[in-house]
Amino acid sequence: MPAIPIPLFALAGFTTGAGMRMLDPLLPLVAAGFGVSVAEATALVAGFVLPYGLVQLLAGPLGDRLGKVRVVTAAVLLYGAGLLASPLATQLGGLVALRAWCGFCAGAVIPLLMAHIADSVPYAGRQVAISRFLTGMVMAQLLAGPVSGVLAQVAGWRAPFLVLGLLALGVGGVLAARLGPALWRGEGDAAGGRGMAAYLDLLRKPSGRWLMAVAFLDGFLLFGGAFPFTGSFLIEVFGRNAAQAGLVVAGFGLGSFAYTRMARPLLGRFGERGLLTLGGCGLALLLAVLALAPAWPVVAAAQVALGLAFYMFHGVLQTLATEALPEARGTAVGGFALALFLGQGAGSLAFGLGLTAIGYRGGFAVAAAGVLALALWARRGARVG
């Protein structure tokens, strides 16, 4: 297979990451456009993340068998087509269906590219290499909110879907061109892959079961339970508009980007177990800050620190996933992503329902307590150095 630079992989990750985070400041606008409540519009979050996770059942084994980058290229192109169709939706149900299609296609991209990088990089340098690749995902967190918010303010909520769809098709086209004839050859880039049976191999290992459980709770409490609703929190509690909320949410990306530059010294100073502890406890503290925030600048400052703390914690888990089943890395990383995003889907539904009972602040407080317990359990159960 032709050598493809990590920055191009990072750009592919950017497109899918932006698709996931673009709705953060848009939920109130989409809800108003379709005449529904914000709580009802949260179906758009679950509609993306549940297929994103479920597709791992197919994408991991398929990538191990046919070639990880080949599967990613097809997925990015199909994802772009779904984004371009999204502005045509006239009802919330139609948009949820298109979000589900986009999530299904996007779900193959990050896990398979991480597994592809892990096939090529020894474990000692893998977390740093993966952090370079994750720059694309981090930049999506940094830019997707403000750009989609500004576009929506100027041209309506449908405009961000159109712009991102064109970008995704362009990235998919470049990947296809770089692969050249290898795009059409049925060569797997992993030594074996036992198909769906590899998931059983993963679950037979105590460390594999631990990793899947931690990933599910990570997704439930953070990806689904807290992070997607910060934009709506800023709009409905502090009176910010969509563009302003997007800029504040983008602070998470600043902290995440700092992690990608600091991964090597942080790992050398604290080790993987130390990063799990510091990152997890930091997340819990910062979510408590959100729950008590008296003004929106406090939320803005917390967002930056949340980005750094999250990747200190989550980055270790991702690296462990690449070594959970070396003979079928696509399947192993796919299983990790499946657990993560099943948790995210469940968390987004639970948080959406909880809004009516305990409000945003109560939800952030519950997430803070849960993340603290998760961090302590992760440190105790992790088999890292």
TrEMBL record:
* Keyword Transmembrane belongs to the record: yes
Annotated signal sequence range: none
Q: How does it sit in the membrane?
A: Multi-pass membrane protein
Q: Which UniProt keywords apply?
A: Cell membrane, Membrane, Transmembrane, Transmembrane helix
Q: Which residues form the Major facilitator superfamily (MFS) profile domain?
A: 5-385
Q: Where in the cell is it found?
A: Cell membrane
Which chain regions cross the lipid bilayer?
A: 29-59, 71-90, 96-118, 130-151, 157-177, 210-230, 242-262, 274-293, 299-320, 332-352, 358-378
PROSITE patterns in UniProt: MFS
Q: Does the keyword Transmembrane helix apply?
A: yes
Q: Tell me which GO cellular component terms the UniProt record holds.
A: plasma membrane
Pfam families with a match to the protein in the record: MFS_1 (PF07690)
Q: Name one GO molecular function term.
A: transmembrane transporter activity
Q: What is this protein called?
A: MFS transporter
Q: Which organism is it from?
A: Roseicella aquatilis
